[in-house]
Specification:
The complex is a heterodimer of chains A (about 475) and B (about 280).
Chain A: H1 16-19, H2 32-39, H3 49-53, H4 60-68, H5 72-80, H6 86-92, H7 99-102, H8 114-128, E1 142-146, H9 150-161, E2 165-169, H10 178-181, H11 190-202, E3 206-208, H12 219-224, E4 230-233, E5 239-240, E6 253-255, H13 256-265, E7 282-286, H14 290-301, E8 306-311, H15 322-330, E9 334-337, E10 339-346, E11 361-374, E12 380-384, E13 390-392, E14 396-399, E15 403-404, H16 408-412, E16 438-440, H17 443-446, H18 451-471
Parallel strand pairs in A: 1-2, 1-4, 2-3, 4-16, 6-14, 7-8, 7-14, 8-9
Antiparallel strand pairs in A: 5-15, 10-11, 11-12, 11-13
Helix pairs in contact in A: 2-4, 2-8, 4-5, 5-8, 6-8, 9-18, 13-14
Chain B: E1 2-11, E2 14-20, H1 22-27, E3 33-37, E4 45-53, E5 58-64, H2 68-74, E6 81-82, E7 84-89, E8 100-106, H3 109-123, E9 126-133, H4 142-148, E10 151-156, E11 163-164, H5 168-176, E12 183-187, H6 190-200, E13 207-210, E14 226-229, E15 232-235, H7 236-239, E16 242-244, H8 250-257, H9 261-279
Parallel strand pairs in B: 8-9, 8-12, 9-10, 10-11, 12-13
Antiparallel strand pairs in B: 1-2, 1-6, 2-5, 3-4, 3-7, 4-5, 13-16, 14-15
The chains are: A alpha/beta (about 475), B alpha/beta (about 280).
The structure holds flavin-adenine dinucleotide (2 copies), iron/sulfur cluster (SF4) and FE2/S2 (inorganic) cluster (FES).
């Protein structure tokens, strides 16, 4: 008899007052009892709609059935058939617009907590699995992967399991991509990402950090001099955009990428940090996506007294994961919706040109917005209300209005074509680019998207690369 | 890990090191830089490639001890290793077609300017080097500059060596006397480059400055190194570090460069204290 409760088992979490002052993970995960109870809410539909909502078609009812039976390791094996990073995806996927949006139980009441179950299963596996994965026999073929985000890691893993000799080239000193430099510890513990990377290494994948492809080595050199038969480009969309409003170069204005990189990758939050970060009192974060939520909640944890999200549309249009918005609200982040910045104001001491405070942020001028007709994206477009300007009292501004693919690889690789937004052009079914032997996927192709899509693209390309090399 | 092949002090606060990094040694061009971390959890700092020896896989860096990270680096010894070393980053300095160039360097900026002077010299370009230091004890790379220049003008602030005064004085005199440089390339403290630009502008001589804002990744993903050049936002790590001096907003760059002054001072004091304790 299924559990007919209309509500999901609530996710145990650190109390908002406590977690607002630490960088430990917010959500604590289900216990075994909670997981089985939640799994029992699943109807094991014959025609499971949830699976259609999942970008990589995880066999959801099958894995949930294993959880119902208490066979958690079995559940993990089912998820592993189509997903490589369940511990990550269970934590960061926007389930409310994917699998859970389609779940039949969601018509009346809340959908099954599919994401929470996925996370439970992956964490169970990570805690209990004893046998290290075995290094498969080599097939003697070399493949290079550029970038170690979810797209690159997945592609590398799939190929390594098939016996390929895979080398991952990463520009930073640490592998993981956005999972290590962008998404903060309190949402995705870095130990989880490290474990994924370590597993790849046991599979025989070589991870070469401090390698900026296009600078240290080019793709052509990898193929011609180093003998890589195929290259997968998963270099992400790391180039931050700014608004081009006056005052954006004042001291105390950050891109979210810089702010989060200082904090997450360079560990600026620690007392013994070697990389500095501004410990601001009043912070405005411009934007409404996951990145904005992460920046706002990070600023709060660094000791800010007041943190606001400044977003030009309304609550309904906020692109961030629902859970992150809820968590941010519980923690006291203010949502200044239907507002848009027009200028950042700086301090200037007219009597002392050498005053060290000169050039620091002292406020942000905003204008109020209202929603007009739907635009091309289907969302109602924001329109300025004339004469409604006001000044927000802040000493730090974090711009979180999006990123685009970095042109570095395109500029140094003849024959690799990109679209108008800088995304690498690929054939969707294979990930093949316009340059023979070169594949691409993830944010480098789509622009800033999601972990699961990047992972899926890595899988698709791995299969196509295998076919290319073995077909020959 | 990247091995320190050789190491020597050029003056009391400036050190030269060769780091083993064959790929960087093979690729680096004058004007490009690397980013390093001394140890795990260390800060990423950019330093210009001061020379390479591809046969030995060696990359030369010359740095001034100004804060915690450069201080920690200076405490390393030959044969030891540093944690991370990545490059070559940034665009090489554009030198093609130049026939007569003035190189204007200040302090440790001379180390950054030297490979450019050497390359120009090798190309057969006439090189006039104007180098300035605070005093005689701080003079570095004099022989190297002599070898790479058709004319070397040595300046010190206090007159303890060479001529007394700042580098813009002889540069101004030369321009007034009708020296026709294709280009002036200047590298040094922001304030010096600002004055060099003020000196050359009335003469309309193309002036290239090498900017050194605070960086993290060095690949264009953080925007922390942004500058305003000709009214547009540029990322020094990928669009530079060289820019048209007439277009750069120096005042903004100076203000941004001081963003973390208190933190830096504290970190430096800590590093020095730690070292003193270890020695005791
Ligand atoms: C703060 C933040 C929060 C997010 N939150 C979520 C979320 O909750 N849920 C979700 O689904 N998605 C989220 N995303 C989006 C998600 O992280 C990305 O869509 C995903 O990481 C893209 O994966 P990728 O492998 O394509 O690229 P990335 O993760 O960006 O990895 C690319 C890697 O390539 C490296 N690289 C780049 N250029 C080169 C080069 N020339 N040579 C060598 N290496 C190079 C980079 O250093 C990087 O490590 C978030 C993103 C950010 C920034
Ligand atoms: C492209 C480029 C090339 C450079 N080349 C050389 C060189 O060849 N030789 C040399 O001596 N110096 C060079 N510098 C400057 C050098 O990077 C700084 O002196 C160094 O980072 C100081 O670190 P610190 O911890 O010892 O000092 P800190 O106490 O941290 O800082 C002292 C000063 O260095 C600046 N600084 C601090 N952190 C950074 C950072 N991450 N990036 C850039 N500047 C920073 C600060 O604005 C401050 O004025 C270069 C800088 C750039 C951007
Ligand atoms: S749609 Fe919902 S109830 Fe049906 S199988 Fe999927 S998770 Fe279970
Ligand atoms: S150092 Fe990050 S963009 Fe230049």
């Amino acid at each position: 008899m299924p559990n007919m409760s209309l509500k999901k088992n609530p996710m145990p979490a650190q109390e908002p007052e406590v977690r607002a002052h630490n960088f430990k993970e917010v959500a604590l995960g289900y216990t075994e009892e909670q997981a089985i109870d939640e799994a029992n809410r699943c109807l094991n539909c014959k025609n499971p709609l949830c699976v259609k909502g999942c970008p990589v078609n995880v066999p959801i009812p099958q894995f949930i059935k294993k959880v119902q039976e208490g066979d958690f390791e079995g559940a993990y094996q089912v998820i592993s058939l189509t997903s490589s990073l369940p511990a990550v995806c269970g934590r960061v996927c926007p389930q409310e617009t994917q699998c859970e949006a389609k779940c039949i139980r969601g018509i009346k009441g809340e959908p099954v907590g599919i994401g929470r179950l996925e996370r439970f299963v992956a964490d169970y596996h990570n805690e209990h699995a004893t046998e290290a994965p075995e290094k498969p026999a080599s097939n003697g073929h070399k493949v290079a992967v550029v970038g170690s985000g979810p797209a690159g890691l997945t592609c590398a893993g799939d190929l390594a399991k098939k016996g390929y000799d895979v080398t991952v080239f990463e520009a930073f000193h640490l592998a993981g991509g956005v999972l290590v430099y962008g998404i903060p510890e309190f949402r995705l513990p870095k130990a989880i990402v490290q474990k994924e990377v370590d597993t790849l290494k046991t599979l025989g994948v070589k991870v070469e950090t401090n390698m900026v492809i296009g600078k240290t080595l080019t793709i052509d050199e990898l193929m011609e001099e180093y003998g890589f038969e195929a290259v997968f480009v998963g270099s992400g969309a790391g180039l931050p955009r700014f608004m081009r409003i006056p005052g954006e170069s004042l001291k105390g204005v950050y891109s979210a990428n810089e702010f989060l990189t200082r904090n997450n990758l360079m560990k600026a939050y620690r007392d013994d940090a070697t990389t500095p970060i501004l410990r601001a009192k009043k912070v405005a974060v411009v934007g409404g996506g996951n990145v904005a939520m992460d920046a706002a909640r990070t600023a709060l944890r660094l000791g800010a007294e007041e943190v606001s999200i400044v977003y030009r549309r309304s609550l309904e249009e906020l692109p961030a994961r629902k859970e992150e918005v809820e968590h941010a609200m519980e923690e006291g982040i203010q949502f200044r919706l239907l507002n848009n910045p027009v200028e950042i104001l700086g301090y200037n001491n007219p009597d002392d040109k050498r005053d060290p405070k000169n050039g620091s942020v002292i406020g942000m001028k905003c204008i109020k917005m209202e929603l007009g007709e739907p635009d091309a994206s289907g969302r109602r477009s924001p329109i300025e209300i004339p004469g409604s300007e006001f000044v927000l009292d802040v000493d730090c501004v974090i711009m979180s209005i999006g990123t685009s693919p970095n042109p570095l690889i395109k500029d140094t690789t003849a024959g690799l074509e990109v679209n108008r937004w800088g995304g690498i052009i690929v054939t969707e079914e294979t990930g093949a680019t316009t340059k023979p032997g070169v594949y691409a996927g993830g944010d480098a192709v789509t622009g800033a998207a999601t972990v699961i899509l990047a992972m899926g693209a890595g899988k698709t390309a791995a299969a196509a690369i295998d076919k290319q090399i073995m077909g020959e | 890990m990247y091995k320190i092949l050789t190491m020597k002090a050029l003056n009391p606060t400036v050190m030269q090191m060769e780091i083993e990094s064959p790929l960087v040694a093979r690729k680096a061009q004058p004007g490009q830089f690397i980013i390093l971390r001394v140890d795990e959890d260390g800060e990423r700092i950019p330093l210009t490639v001061a020379g390479t020896d591809p046969a030995r896989g060696a990359v030369k860096i010359i740095f001034q001890i100004v804060g915690a990270t450069t201080y920690k680096l200076s405490l390393k010894s030959e044969g030891e290793s540093i944690q991370d070393f990545v490059g070559p980053l940034g665009k090489p300095t554009e030198l093609e077609g130049l026939k007569k160039v003035a190189i204007v360097g200040g302090g440790v900026g001379c180390a950054i300017a030297l490979p450019i002077a050497e390359k120009l010299h090798e190309m057969g370009c006439e090189v006039h080097s104007y180098v300035g230091f605070r005093n005689k004890d701080l003079v570095i790379l004099e022989d190297e500059f002599k070898a790479a220049s058709d004319k070397l003008i040595m300046m010190t602030d206090d007159g303890s060596y060479g001529r007394q005064g700042v580098v813009t004085v002889p540069l101004q005199e030369a321009l007034e006397a009708g020296e026709a440089y294709d280009e002036v390339i200047t590298i040094g403290p922001l304030i010096m480059m600002k004055f060099v630009v003020a000196t050359t502008k009335p003469f309309g001589v193309k002036t290239t400055v090498s900017m050194n804002p605070i960086m993290i990744d060095g690949t264009g993903m953080c925007g922390g190194c942004r500058l305003t050049v000709g009214g547009k936002t540029k990322f020094a790590c990928v669009d530079g570090p060289d820019f048209d001096g007439f277009e750069v907003d120096f005042d903004e760059a100076m203000s941004r460069g001081a963003s973390y002054r208190d933190f830096e001072k504290h970190a430096y004091d800590e590093a020095c204290n730690l070292f003193k304790k270890e020695v005791q």
